[in-house]
Amino acid sequence: MTTSEIRYQPLPLPDRGDMTDAAMQAAALAHHDAMATRHTVRDFSDRSVPRAVIETAIATAGRAPSGANQQPWHFVAISDTPMKTKIRAAAEEEERAFYEGGAPDEWIAALEPIGTGASKPHLEIAPWLIVVFAQRWGTREDGARYKHYYVPESVGLATGFLIGALHLSGLSVLTHTPSPMKFLTGLCDRPVAEKPVMILAVGHPAKDATVPAAALNKKPLEEILTVISADTETT
User: 39-208 in CATH: which number?
Assistant: First the structure.
C-alpha cells in the first residue's frame, strides 16, 4: 500500500497512563533530575559500546512524532574505524575553513567559552558516530516523489529522543554540525533526497573528561517559561 492509499482509521488508544497528580510530579522530577546529569563531552574513552544499545536508542528515536507521520529521518550508525577516520578528515577540513576566516568574528567569539576548535579527535575515538539525515521527500513504489512536511521539526524531535535515550543508557553524546556537511551523503552512501544535519559522537566519557564551565550555565525556569492559565491561585 502506498502513502496515498492510506485512509484515516481511528483506533482505541493502545497505551494509556493512569497516574495520580503526585505520581506525575514525582515522575517529572525524576526525569528532570536524570536529564540534568547530561553533559556534552569532547573527551571519550575507547571503551566499546554494544551495537544493541545503539540500535535500541535509534528505535526509540523512531517513536518521535512527525509531520503527517512521515518519519522523515534516517540514522547511519558507524563503528568502523577507517570510516570514522574519513569522516574526521572531511569534517576537520570544513572546520579549518570555518575557524580561519569562514565564520563571522561574532560567531567565533560566542564559541570561545565553549573551547571548540578545528581539531576533532572525538570523531575517531568515540566508539560510535551516528549521522542524522533528514529526508526531504519520499518516493512511491512507482518512483514518483511526494513531499514531506515539517521535516526540520520532525528530525529535531527524533534527535532529541535519541540523545535522551543514549544518555539514559549511560552514554555521553557530542552533537557536531560541520558546515557544509555534504561530504556525509557520499561517505554514508545516502540518496540525494536525504540531507545530513548532524553527527552524534557517542560513547563513554574518558576518565579525565572535562566540560566547559560556561556549559553549566542553564537559563532558569522563569526565563524559558511563560504560563497562560485560566487557573487563579489564591492565598
Answer: 3.40.109.10
